[in-house]
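Long-time lurker, first post.

We've been arguing in lab meeting about whether 2-acetamido-2-deoxy-beta-D-glucopyranose would sit comfortably in this protein at all. Half the group thinks yes, half thinks no, and nobody has a model to point at. So I'm putting the question to the forum: if I give you the sequence and the SMILES, can you give me back a predicted structure of the complex? Inputs are below. Any interpretation is welcome too.
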Amino acid sequence: MGFSLKLCPLVFLLLFFLAFSFSSSSSSSSATQLCSHEHATFLLQFSSAFSINKSASECEYFSSVKSYSKTLSWKEGTDCCFWDGITCDNITGNVIDLDLSCSNLYGSFPSNSSLFLIKSLESLNLSNNDFNLSKIPREIGQFVSLKHLDLSYSLFSGQFPNEITHLSKLVSLNLSNFELKLEEATFKSLAQNLSEIRELILSEVNLSSLNPRYVMNLSSSLIDLDLSSSDLEGKFPHNILQFPNLKSLTLGGSEQLTISLPKSNLSSPLEFLDLEYMRCSELFHSISDLKSLKVLILECNLEGSIPSSIGNLSQLSMVDLSSNNLSGNDTLEYLNLSHNFLMALEQIPWRNIRTLDIRSNMLQGVFPVPPIKMIFLLISTNNLSGEISSELCKANSLEILDFSHNNLSGMIPNCLPKLSKSLFVLNMQANRFHGNMPSMFPKGCRIQNFNLHGNQMEGLLPRSLVNCRMLEVLDIGNNNIKDTFPYWLESLPKLQVLVLRSNKFHGFVHNTKANSSFPKLRVLDLSNNNFVGPLPVHYIENLKAMVNAQEDGKNSAQYMGGRFSYEYSIMVTMKGLFIELEKVLTIFSSFDLSKNKFVGEIPKVIGKLSSLKGLNLSHNNLNGSIPHSLGNLTNLEWLDLSSNELVGEIPQELVSLTSLSVLDLSNNQLDGCIPQGNQFNTFENSSYKGNPMLYGFPLTKSCDGNGMLQQPLGSFHGKVHKLWEFGWRVVLLGYVCGLVFGLLMGYFAFQIGKPKWFVTLFVGQHNQKARNVKKA
Ligand SMILES: *[C@@H]1O[C@H](CO)[C@@H](O)[C@H](O)[C@H]1NC(C)=O
Ligand SMILES: *[C@@H]1O[C@H](CO)[C@@H](O)[C@H](O)[C@H]1NC(C)=O
Ligand SMILES: *[C@@H]1O[C@H](CO)[C@@H](O)[C@H](O)[C@H]1NC(C)=O
Ligand SMILES: *[C@@H]1O[C@H](CO)[C@@H](O)[C@H](O)[C@H]1NC(C)=O
Ligand SMILES: *[C@@H]1O[C@H](CO)[C@@H](O)[C@H](O)[C@H]1NC(C)=O
Ligand SMILES: *[C@@H]1O[C@H](CO)[C@@H](O)[C@H](O)[C@H]1NC(C)=O
Ligand SMILES: *[C@@H]1O[C@H](CO)[C@@H](O)[C@H](O)[C@H]1NC(C)=O
Ligand SMILES: *[C@@H]1O[C@H](CO)[C@@H](O)[C@H](O)[C@H]1NC(C)=O
Ligand SMILES: *[C@@H]1O[C@H](CO)[C@@H](O)[C@H](O)[C@H]1NC(C)=O
Ligand SMILES: *[C@@H]1O[C@H](CO)[C@@H](O)[C@H](O)[C@H]1NC(C)=O
Ligand SMILES: *[C@@H]1O[C@H](CO)[C@@H](O)[C@H](O)[C@H]1NC(C)=O
Ligand SMILES: *[C@@H]1O[C@H](CO)[C@@H](O)[C@H](O)[C@H]1NC(C)=O
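Top reply:
Settle the argument with this. Predicted structure of the protein with 2-acetamido-2-deoxy-beta-D-glucopyranose, as tokens:
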């Protein structure tokens, strides 16, 4: 029994199906084809009108779609439902979806094409072919079931046939094509008849005869309207923003088109607004009412001022304000455009701005001279290069100046310390500055956070820093500073974080004042220098803040800085990883004297620093045994005493360090049995390697006398729960996740950055639109 389905009424069809399924299953299947024979014939006739020509489709140049000749797989006698580009209704066998986009089709489109006989089509995509500037045949109106029509970039030309208005079921219509023309009359009936249209893309279609007010006749189901580069003229009706579903509006590229937004009461779900290369004066009155806005492109000769409330557009992720005249009489005082894709400083209207946050953009060029009245300038994490002009020193109202993480070089202007009478924060971290540090910090210096980490500074640490009595954070790690230990900083009453790591500091570390040195210090990082002599016992005895970091009251965790909604970040080594803490909790405390030439014993008194989270004395020449008092450091999470000359047993007291997650005692001369229990059940061989006389779990040599203690792995004690309490998710999102399983990450948040998909999505979309505009 043959099983070929013709275009018969559905009822018959169902009966046929039923009959078939009850009949013997021995009926042959070789002859059964889902595809209607008629449709197969139509398709083959249709495709035979065109030749295959690689230069007809160039999709790979502007999208991730690869061009290839789908019709090559179309063979007579095979089931057309399995041909490339074809989808059938699997009950009727009718072709309902034809996608021949990017298929290298070349040739004139015949008006008697058999394609028009396939009336079941619901979706037709012929975009990106070369139809040799044919007219769109009026027969297109016969596709009465069509919901999606995409003829974009397929080199049709001429007037759009009126019959397009018969396609009343259309949901999306894409006719982007710069040879096409759509008359006002056709547009009007289109607007009237396409009651279900959601996406209307007429980019580059010549709409010069259309009065823009007729767009208001379009269906209110509209979500995406793109009339860019369409030669529209006159006033675009701003009421379009009252369309309840409109999320994307692209009008740019028509130089004679103007738009102004209503003065108030805008309430619109608009997310994407592109008005480049048109006229959009007076736009700004109510733009901040567009609360859902994510992408805003306004290269449109804007004059006047941006309302400060633009900073309240919390969804905004990309702004392009380039090529405007916003510098004129701009009353804007606060502008936050951080984490955008700003490329050029000229895009920023900053004459009167007092607070500018443009962190994490893509700004290039030289460091700008800020206006004299500026108070906050946050321009970190961009690509600025070149030297800093001493003109900067005129901005003597600055309180926060952060140009860290750029590519700036040269010497730091000598006049910069003058600004310290107003500056609270001076962050120059991670640039390429060299030369001596500016030296003349005046009396009355107010700097609280001074960060020069990761540059190439030389010479001495300026003694005048002692004038900065408010100093809380001093981070000059990773430079070439050649100096002795700055004991003269010990009187600074508020210094909490002192990072001198990876410089050329040398000599003994000793104190002058016995009782009141570094009263607030809780993060000390001297690692990787040339310090010699014994560990500084007297300092250790007096580091009150490390004895009780919560001394200042407040049980609830607070971040450093934050007063000006600017939180301090510092670079620290935690658990063997060098990372940037984007925010620093005021209870964070660590002591790192590793990679120096310290000698002698580890003083017992170190057991008093009970707030310590981390202790690193590795890579020195320390000898003697590990003090039992370390068992008093109950907050300790990492302990590294590796690569010294320590002898004796590992104190049993260390078992009580139930927060400890990283232990490194390797490369010493320790002996005896490794203590067992609690966290010690979790450490691996690597914690002990290079101590030939150590025994017991996890090493293979069992303990003398008692035999090998076999503790099951994973019998953690309660502290593990802390991992979850302290935002373990942050760890999973951060870039060190795999490495540091088992860390307690409550003390900081990583900079996660914008996800890749986001950049691709918005920059990609923008580029596509830009491409359209350029084509015109
Ligand atoms: C291929 O198409 C291009 C235009 O897209 C045309 O100029 C060229 O002549 C065509 N080549 C052939 C062999 O038809
Ligand atoms: C085709 O059949 C599949 C199941 O085999 C079903 O999920 C799908 O909806 C059908 N498609 C149509 C267009 O009927
Ligand atoms: C038509 O095909 C192109 C290229 O494959 C694709 O980008 C586009 O989204 C398709 N159009 C529709 C309406 O699906
Ligand atoms: C392209 O159009 C021109 C002018 O209408 C015509 O002479 C030529 O034969 C067409 N070429 C193809 C390949 O259809
Ligand atoms: C279309 O018309 C041309 C002549 O104009 C003819 O040669 C061709 O067979 C027709 N094609 C169809 C599918 O009717
Ligand atoms: C609207 O579409 C119907 C068919 O769907 C058609 O008969 C009618 O002429 C169309 N109206 C206009 C104004 O084109
Ligand atoms: C044409 O527009 C539709 C509707 O917005 C869209 O889905 C499609 O991707 C567009 N086609 C191309 C080739 O970009
Ligand atoms: C659009 O059409 C008008 C009127 O027909 C014409 O003057 C204008 O040059 C066309 N624009 C383009 C870009 O072809
Ligand atoms: C189309 O818009 C015009 C102007 O806004 C209006 O006068 C007319 O009534 C509208 N027509 C329809 C059918 O909605
Ligand atoms: C704005 O909306 C409010 C409440 O919806 C209304 O009372 C007020 O009159 C509107 N203002 C204007 C200028 O339309
Ligand atoms: C500039 O702005 C002030 C208000 O800030 C206004 O009084 C003045 O008229 C404006 N000047 C011009 C030329 O627009
Ligand atoms: C460690 O704690 C014990 C018991 O609280 C105490 O006796 C001892 O003095 C402490 N050691 C140090 C060095 O603080």
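For your lab meeting: The CA atoms of residues 101 and 179 lie 18 Å apart. Residues 1-31, 551-555, 705-776 have pLDDT under 50 and may be disordered. Whichever side wins, do check it experimentally.
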